[in-house]
Amino acid sequence: MGLFDIFKKDRGYDIHSLEFCEVGKDGKRETLPSLKLYTDSRYIMPVVKMTSRIDRTVKMKVRITEPNSKVHVYDFDAPLTPAENISAQLPWWGSEKRDYFTTVGTWQFDVLDEDDQVVIGAPLEIASLDSLWEEKGWIQLVSGFEFCNTHNDYTIIDHWGTREFMEPEYIGMRCKYMSFSKVEREVTYDVRIENLATGKVKAFSHTVTLKPQGGWLQMCGWGSDSGNSYDPGRYTYLLCYKGRQVGSGQFEVEKSPMQRGWIEPVALVFYFYNDEKEMTDWVAYDCGLSLLEGGVARQLQFRANACKYMIAGFQWRSLEAGHPLKLTFRFYLDGNLIYSCSRDRETEPFDPQSLFYKDFEISGTFWYERSDGSVDTFRAGRYQVNLYLETDELHEHLVMQRTLELR
Prior knowledge:
By secondary structure, this protein is mainly β. It is 7% helix and 53% strand. The protein contains three helices and 28 strands. The longest helix has 17 residues, at 276-292.
């Protein structure tokens, strides 16, 4: 403490910080406290953090100095009560016509005590409204994203509003916007399209002309004539302006029949039996009737050391007729391969009257033969069958698996 501080008058209060909000004429806040506002501000209210050690009303003033040195002063009575580090709102100043803060630059606000001494001061940056709109990309979106699939010449394949695509060529986006610009304005936006499963990203920029009256913002489509630019999966479409996200949406790309191997797997089941009649009855009645009624082949339960022969049945639904299939069954016992066989089939047109005969296939039969030529029963263990599919377009790949415990 200096010598002259001993004689310094104690105001009875301290102001620790000073920020500013835009408010309406009723004093209701329209922005959060900050040190930056814009030329369209109506009323600006100083917001302070302060500590009071007194219980009385004091005189204060706010002095405002414009960038051109023009000064405005207003005074007010401040009723204080003892409190520590509280937030307080001082009277606001401005105009309903928004014509008080039209000068761009740094405005100095000083809070003065009753002796016209500065208690605290802070600069307020008044920026042009255009700079605000520039930060926001000049638009406010008033609708969600819509997507469509087009040819390279913009001929529509899947119309606006589609959310699920199959082998799309070029996916475009549009959304409705409200413009903050009073004139037509060319603006360049950045687009980021990400496959959420793979993390693969395509990024590009596109320049559009914004209309003062607003309307549809439409971004050019991205893709290829071949329709193989989009892997199956869910995609996020981000629209950005100078690193700031303006909006986002999602769409889905489904596997085509070719990418799915021309079929939709339905069921894979084991069957254990002791004679040919048991097997043919299972195929004809348990599976056949169920499938003819539109059902699904069900897995039955079996006991260890009770059956001599084992097969598997695979049920599917053809997605498109006329495509050759290679179905490979691989059988395992406690993780060890014990048998493998393949079947050649062709996809057929959907026909509910003969579904069983077209979209169902059984494997070859497997059994254990003793040294004397007799057939052994299947012992306890963990049996597993894997079904692999191969087509002219796709290499062999696993499509279904079934595990069954014999005890």
